[in-house]
Amino acid sequence: xxxxxxxxxxxxxxxxxxxxxxxxxxxxxxxxxxxxxxxxxxxxxxxxxxxxxxxxxxxxxxxxxxxxxxxxxxxxxxxxxxxxxxxxxxxxxxxxxxxxxxxxxxxxxxxxxxxxxxxxxxxxxxxxxxxxxxxxxxxxxxxxxxxxxxxxxxxxxxxxxxxxxxxxxxxxxxxxxxxxxxxxxxxxxxxxxxxxxxxxxxxxxxxxxxxxxxxxxxxxxxxxxxxxxxxxxxxxxxxxxxxxxxxxxxxxxxxxxxxxxxxxxxxxxxxxxxxxxxxxxxxxxxxxxxxxxxxxxxxxxxxxxxxxxxxxxxxxxxxxxxxxxxxxxxxxxxxxxxxxxxxxxxxx
Length: 348
Prior knowledge:
Elements: E1 4-9, E2 20-28, E3 39-44, E4 48-53, E5 58-63, E6 77-83, E7 94-99, E8 103-108, E9 113-118, E10 133-139, E11 148-153, E12 157-162, E13 167-171, E14 183-190, E15 193-200, E16 206-213, E17 217-224, E18 232-239, E19 255-260, E20 264-269, E21 274-280, E22 291-299, E23 310-315, E24 319-324, E25 329-333
Antiparallel strand pairs: 1-2, 3-4, 4-5, 5-6, 7-8, 8-9, 9-10, 11-12, 12-13, 13-15, 14-15, 16-17, 17-18, 19-20, 20-21, 21-22, 23-24, 24-25
């Protein structure tokens, strides 16, 4: 087994050992600080990449101008993957990783929250003074030592979901007015930072189970408990809605997976239908045409072989990827830097 990467490489973020404008086809990574079969998850930021392996170790490469690689290094870029020392996480394996534009985060098996990189907008939930750039992971405590379950970054904000189904938002994210009636949104203060707290208005009828961030908006995945004996998925949204990316929906079928791009979203239903909505100027919705936006969920224009089904969908900033049960990968959308890996730079 081996790892291949494609797309922009101006900061060495593909881990190929050199910097280049782009790679239009998947390139094999020659040297790694991890074993390819042990890769558990890959996350990308504005110019850096994090990899989490099955042993709970985090590996980083690419842009490091704000310390977003977590290597305690002042080098501008690293073009080969290096492991973030486990001592930075208190020798506890990492369970979840996330990347923002120039900031990174992780949650350990003990549910401790760590941040590193840019804190220019207080997106780490700590005061900027003395912490505008953090070059190694630091632990950030939530109110009442609550345990972290999910972490997600936008351009200038970070959102954390706790184990008791609360959301804390740090940094800058404009909440739409009025907000969804199903949510209670209050302003609070944490570590000398303005913080937004979100809870379900009625916890007996709605439970927040996951969250995802776009550039200036968020998707909140909830379980609707209002009907006795049933639990249906409900997608709520907050934030900027310039391209209809913050439109909320309750689908006819339960949602198996959601994914969020810069200004567009995707939902995979349990019947394997894939629906996308939001901005579409680069074809990032994959619906077979270009348009300014699509306000309602529209079917992905892909015809899979009879025995092939969606396994995982991922949204880049302005493009998308789909992996199937047959191991096939489909890509579409913005392709200026070879993001789609089809040996071309035309949008797909």
